[in-house]
Design a protein that fits this description.
Number of helices: 8
CATH topology of the largest domain: Rna Polymerase Sigma Factor, Chain: A
Structural class: mainly alpha
Radius of gyration: 20 Å
CATH superfamily of the largest domain: RNA polymerase sigma factor, region 2, helix turn helix motif
Number of domains: 2
Largest sheet: none
Length: 188
C-alpha cells in the first residue's frame, strides 16, 4: 500500500508544475471576473472585493495539491471565492454588531459609479434584503452569467435548491422594487 501512496505522490509532483502553470494563466484570465464577482457578493465594497478575490486566489494556490480535477479549475476556484465572500459578510456583520469599528461620520472612500445614485441605492438595499444564498445565486446567474448547473457546482448544492433560491430571490426583488415597475409603466 505504501508503494501506491509513493507512486501517487510522484505523479502529483510531476503534474504540479503543469497545474501551477495552468493556475497562473487562470489567474491572469479570471482576475477581473473574480474581483467583479467578489464586489457583487460583498455588497459593492471595492476594498473588500479586492481582499476577498486576493484571498481566494491565495487559498486556491495553496490548495493546488488537493485539486482533484473532478471539476474544472474555474468551478473549483469560484467555489472558494464564494466561500471567501460569505466569510467576509459574516465577519462584517459581526463587526457591525459589536460596534466601534471606524468613524461613522467618515466620508465614503469608494468612487461613485455612473448612473442614478438613488436607483443604485434602492437596488443595493433590495439586494441586502436577500438571504446570503439567495444573493449568491442571483449574482452568479443573473449578473455573472453562470448557468444553474454551474452555480449548483460552485455552491455544492443540488440544482433544485439553486432554482429555489433563485425563485425566492427574484420574488423578493420584485416585491422590494415593485414601485419602480409601476413608475416605468406610468412613464410609458
Amino acid at each position: 500500500m505504501s508503494g501506491r501512496v509513493e507512486e501517487l505522490g510522484a505523479l502529483e509532483a510531476m503534474a504540479r508544475p503543469e497545474l501551477e502553470g495552468a493556475f497562473e494563466a487562470f489567474v491572469v484570465s479570471h482576475r477581473e471576473r473574480a474581483r467583479r464577482l467578489a464586489w457583487r457578493l460583498v455588497g459593492g465594497d471595492l476594498g473588500a472585493a479586492e481582499d476577498v478575490a486576493q484571498d481566494a486566489f491565495l487559498r486556491a494556490y495553496r490548495s493546488l495539491g488537493r485539486f482533484r480535477q473532478e471539476a474544472t479549475l474555474s468551478t473549483w476556484f469560484y467555489r472558494i471565492l464564494v466561500r471567501q465572500a460569505a466569510n467576509h459578510r459574516r465577519w462584517r456583520q459581526l463587526r457591525e454588531r459589536m460596534g466601534g469599528w471606524g468613524d461613522p461620520e467618515a466620508a465614503d472612500p469608494r468612487v461613485a459609479p455612473p448612473g442614478d445614485p438613488a436607483l443604485r441605492l434602492r437596488i443595493s438595499s433590495a439586494m441586502e434584503e436577500l438571504t446570503g444564498r439567495q444573493r449568491e445565486v442571483f449574482v452568479l446567474i443573473h449578473l455573472e452569467g453562470f448557468t444553474v448547473r454551474e452555480t449548483a457546482a460552485l455552491l455544492g448544492r443540488p440544482e433544485g435548491t439553486v432554482k429555489s433560491h433563485l425563485h425566492r430571490a427574484l420574488a423578493r426583488l420584485r416585491q422590494e422594487l415593485a414601485d419602480l415597475r409601476d413608475l416605468e409603466g406610468a412613464n410609458s
